[in-house]
Amino acid sequence: MQPEELSYAIVTPYSMRKSRTGGIVGRLISRTGLDLVGGRMFAPSAELAKRYVETIVTETDAQHRATQELIRDYVLKNFAGKINGQRPRVLLLVFRGADAVEKIHRTVGHIVHERTSGETIRDTFGDYITDDSGKVIYFEPAVLTAFDPKTVEHDLKLWADFSDRDGGILDHVINFPGEAEVEKTLVLIKPDNFKFPNLRPGGVIEVFSRSGLLIIGFKVHRMTVAQAEEFYGPVLPVLEQKLGPASGRDNWEGIVEFMAGRRPSECPPEDRNTPGTEKSIAIVYQGVDAVHKIRDVLGPTDPAKAPPGSIRKEFGQTIMINAAHASDSADNAKREMGIIRIGENNFKPLIENFYRRR
Predict the structure, then answer these.
(1) How many angstroms separate the most distant Cα atoms in the chain?
(2) Superfamily for 1-168+343-358?
(3) pLDDT surpasses 70 at 3
């Protein structure tokens, strides 16, 4: 049995601005079969960008070396500073599994070998355009990664070192007009999307992109039973009133089990704060009227009543297994973000613990 590896993919600022994140995430999960174990938003500093590119140019083959030099120059130009008055945002995703580095490599593709067939991520989302003399006149790699385990380890440790300073909830990165009523809202891509590697998590993100809002936070999260109880605490009295105390409580425990993997009545006190078995992706969106825009794209709780094109119509199954959760008010968004500790840096310990064991 092959040992597990970590690998990574960085969604570039251009891909983020063009709302290609969902398509890229879907490809990475479904085509590699790897486990998405971590993710963090970054607004890279010039220092991080400079140190990241130190390991990029390694090839001796002239064509491949020239491409690596293009990537190095791309990072230095596009990852730090400001573009059109805005600081660039990137999303770093971490995957785990056997042969992870090569699987990510195959799925991302080599931009020089672009066949415009849609086979790789760079086929679909990247550009390598030359003039008649062969000079590159436009270059967009769409996703960045490393193609050997030692470089992956170096890069992940580097980004982990900068993950507190340059990463997290990027709520001071985007400039809005002074009179704009800007909100933050929380989305949870629920565990039903992660039963096996598939396009659904990316598809949900892609539909949310119709809101025109910006992703400023991203976290792979496993709810504890205690978090799920608090998160869905307001739902319990509603269910008890609607269904009766016993049935309402039973349904509520089913929701907690769905999100955390365990029913509260069956969870010993010492396990209540242990991360659960079920995975979610927590995303923070920012923009004008963010709560309403996200809820509008999400659709009503019951997928049967959701309009065509909404997330719950496209991906939901039942009132509980309905693809995603979104905060219903700015106050609730703040409350829910606090419960799941959206600002917590679980990216750095993930990297440190994995390589410490090796």
Answers:
(1) 76
(2) Nucleoside diphosphate kinase-like domain (3.30.70.141)
(3) yes
